[in-house]
Design goal:
Elements: E1 7-9, H1 17-20, E2 26-27, H2 35-38, E3 44-49, E4 55-61, E5 67-69
Parallel strand pairs: 1-3
Antiparallel strand pairs: 2-5, 3-4
Length: 70
């Protein structure tokens, strides 16, 4: 099956517990911000994964913002 949504990932050392328990934001210093992430349009819906590539949820991404995902 082809994944239609882009995937963004937390940095390996980022603790994902707060996000798993419902924290509403992901900050830019917690994500791997490669060229693909930076190229996403504001408001893009993406899959969020932890540093070990386990799914955490679906987020709206705003590259260039301090609060990069909600």
């Amino acid at each position: 099956m082809t994944e239609l949504r882009p995937t963004i990932r937390l940095k390996p050392k980022t603790d994902a517990r707060a996000i798993r328990h419902g924290a509403p934001w992901v900050f830019d210093n917690e994500l791997v911000t490669d060229r693909r992430t930076k190229a996403l349009s504001p408001g893009t819906i993406a899959r969020l994964e932890d540093g070990e590539r386990r799914p955490l949820g679906t987020v709206a991404v705003t590259p260039g913002s301090r609060t990069i995902a909600r």
